[in-house]
Amino acid sequence: MSHDWQALYPFKSHDFLVDGHRLHYVDEGEGRPLVLVHGNPTWSFYWRALITALRPQYRVVAIDHIGCGLSNKPQQYPYRLQNHIDNLQRLVEHLDLREVTLVAHDWGGPIGLGTALALPQRFARFVVLNSAAFRSPHIPWQIRLARTPLLGTFANRGLNAFLRGALRTALAKREKMTPPVRAGYLAPYDSWCHRVAIDRFVKDIPRSSRHPSYETLLRIENGLSTLTDRPWLFLWGMRDWCFHEWYLNRFLEFVPTAEVHRFTDAGHLLMEDKPDEVVQAVKEFLSKHVGA
C-alpha cells in the first residue's frame, strides 16, 4: 500500500464496533458537529479538505462505511442501505451528536438522510453534493455494466474497474487527480476481498419494487418533506454523468427554498474539482444557519 497519500490525510483514527465489525471514523475539532458521509467508491479521504478547513471551528466527524476506507471489510455481510443507515445512526447516538449538520455525497445522501429521518431531533441542517435520496428512472450504462452478474463483479473486484474508472471520469479537472490523491483513493481497496463493498453498493441500487432496498429508499423519499423545515444547501457538479441535473431538480421539488450552488466546470467528485469553493460555500452556509 503506497504511503505517499498519508500526508494528505493527517487525521487521528477512531473505531466503533458495530455487530462485531470495526467501523472507522475521523473526529476532529470541537463545537457544533458536522457529520460527513461519503459514497461509493470513495471513503472519508474524499472529505480531507473540508475536515481541515472546518475543524478549527466545528466538530467534524467523517465515517467510513463498513467495507470502505479504513473500516473492516467483512465478506459475509448484508451491505444493504438499511445496514449503513443503522451503523451511522448508532455512531451518532454513541457520540451523542446534537444539532448536527449533515454533509453527504453520492450514497451518503440516502444513508445520511435515512439516519436523519430515524433521528430527526438530532439533525438541524443539510448539505448535499451530487447525490439522490429517491427513486430514479435513470441508470447510466457504466452502472448497468457494473451491475452485470458475474462479469460486473469480476470487473469491480478483480480488475478494480469501477474505482479506477471513477478516478478517470468522475471529475472535470483531471489534473487534480495527482499521484498522491489517486493513491489515497486506491489504498483501502487493494485486493479482491477489500473491494467487496464497492461491488455490493453497485448491486444495491434498487431498480424495482422487488429489490431488498427498494422499501428503504421509498421510505426515505416519502420522508424528505418532514425535513424541509430546516436549512438546506445543494452543491452540484454539473458535469456529473451519474447524478446529473435531473437529480438536483428532483431534490428541489422537495426543498424549493434550498440554497443552490451549481458548478458548471465540475463533475461528480466535486471535492476534488472545487475544494476551495465548496469549503467557502459550506462556511458561509454555516455562518448563516448555525443556531437557526
Brief overview:
The protein has 292 residues and is α/β, with parallel strands linked by helices.
Please explain how this structure is put together.
The chain is 38% helix and 17% strand. The protein has 292 residues and is α/β, with parallel strands linked by helices. It has a single domain (6-289), classed as 3-Layer(aba) Sandwich (Rossmann fold), CATH 3.40.50. The chain has an 8-stranded mixed sheet, with helices on both faces. Helix 1 (48-54) crosses helix 12. The longest helix is centred in the C-terminal third of the chain and has 15 residues, at 275-289. The model has no long low-confidence stretch (mean pLDDT 94).
Per-chain topology:
Layout: E1 13-18, E2 21-28, E3 33-37, H1 48-54, E4 59-63, H2 81-94, E5 100-106, H3 108-118, E6 123-131, H4 141-146, H5 151-158, H6 161-169, H7 179-186, H8 196-203, H9 214-223, E7 232-237, H10 245-254, E8 259-263, H11 270-273, H12 275-289
Parallel strand pairs: 3-4, 3-5, 5-6, 6-7, 7-8
Antiparallel strand pairs: 1-2, 2-4
Helix pairs in contact: 1-12, 2-3, 3-9
- Put simply, the count of helices is 12
Q: Write down how many β-strands occur, each being a DSSP E stretch of 2 or more residues.
A: 8
* Rg measurement, Å: 17 Å
SS strand fraction: 15-25%
Give the termini separation: 44 Å
Order of helices and strands: EEEHEHEHEHHHHHHEHEHH
Question: Looking at the chains present, what oligomeric state does this protein adopt?
Answer: single chain
Please name the fourth-level CATH homologous superfamily: Alpha/Beta hydrolase fold, catalytic domain
Structural class: alpha/beta
The helicity comes to: 25-40%
CATH topology: Rossmann fold
What would you call the shape?
A: globular
Give the mean pLDDT.
94
CATH architecture tag = 3-Layer(aba) Sandwich
- Spatially, the strands of the biggest sheet line up as 1-2-4-3-5-6-7-8
- Tally of distinct domains: 1
pLDDT below 50 for ≥5 consecutive residues: which ranges? Answer: none
> Major sheet: size, sense and barrel closure?
8 strands, mixed
Name of the CATH first level: Alpha Beta
